[in-house]
C-alpha cells in the first residue's frame, strides 16, 4: 500500500502543478490583464465573485484528487498486473504514442453512437437547450 500512496502523491502533484500553472496563466490573462477588453465578448456581463472562485477552485481540487487517484489505483495496487503500462516511450513506435488516445476516443464515441437508437439520437439533437443571453 506504500506504493499506492507514493503513486497518488506523485500523480496528484503532477496534475495540481500543471493545472495551477496553466489555469493561473489563463485566468490572469483573461480576468486581470485583458479584463476590460473581453467584457463585450462575455456571455455573462457580471464577473465571478470571490465565492464563485473559491467554489471553482474546490471543484478543481476534487478533480485533481480523482485524476491522481486513478493512476495510483492502477499502478500502486494489484491492478497493475492487468494493465499494459509503458515506461519507455520508444517501446512502441511514436506513431502509436500519438494515435492511441485519439483512436480510443473515436472508438468509444463510435460504440456509444452505435448503441444509441437513431430516434433517441435525433431527440437529443433537437431537444438541446438553446443558449440566449447567457441563459439556457
Q: How big is the Rg?
A: 21 Å
Structural class: mainly alpha
Please report the number of helical segments: 5
Shape annotation: extended
Distance between the termini: 46 Å
Could you tell me the mean pLDDT?
A: 83
Task: Give me the count of strands.
Answer: 0
Account of the protein in words:
With 136 residues, this protein is mainly α. The protein has two domains: 1-85, no CATH class; 87-136, no CATH class. Helix content is 68%, strand content 0%. It has five helices and no strands. Helix 1 packs antiparallel against helix 3 (50-75). The longest helix is centred in the N-terminal third of the chain and has 32 residues, at 2-33. The mean pLDDT is 83.
Attribute tags:
5 helices, about 70% helix, about 140 residues
Structural topology:
Elements: H1 2-33, H2 35-38, H3 50-75, H4 94-115, H5 118-126
Provide a concise account of the structure shown:
The protein is mostly helical and 136 residues long.
Amino acid at each position: 500500500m506504500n506504493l499506492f500512496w507514493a503513486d497518488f502523491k506523485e500523480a496528484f502533484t503532477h496534475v495540481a502543478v500543471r493545472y495551477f500553472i496553466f489555469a493561473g496563466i489563463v485566468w490572469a490573462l483573461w480576468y486581470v490583464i485583458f479584463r476590460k477588453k473581453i467584457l463585450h465578448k462575455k456571455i455573462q456581463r457580471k464577473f465571478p465573485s470571490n465565492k464563485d472562485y473559491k467554489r471553482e477552485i474546490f471543484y478543481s481540487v476534487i478533480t485533481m484528487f480523482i485524476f491522481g487517484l486513478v493512476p495510483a489505483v492502477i499502478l500502486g495496487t494489484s491492478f497493475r498486473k492487468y494493465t499494459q503500462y509503458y515506461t519507455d516511450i520508444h517501446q512502441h513506435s511514436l506513431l502509436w504514442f500519438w494515435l492511441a488516445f485519439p483512436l480510443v476516443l473515436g472508438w468509444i464515441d463510435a460504440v456509444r453512437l452505435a448503441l444509441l437508437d437513431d430516434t433517441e439520437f435525433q431527440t437529443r439533437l433537437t431537444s438541446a437547450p438553446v443558449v440566449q443571453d447567457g441563459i439556457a
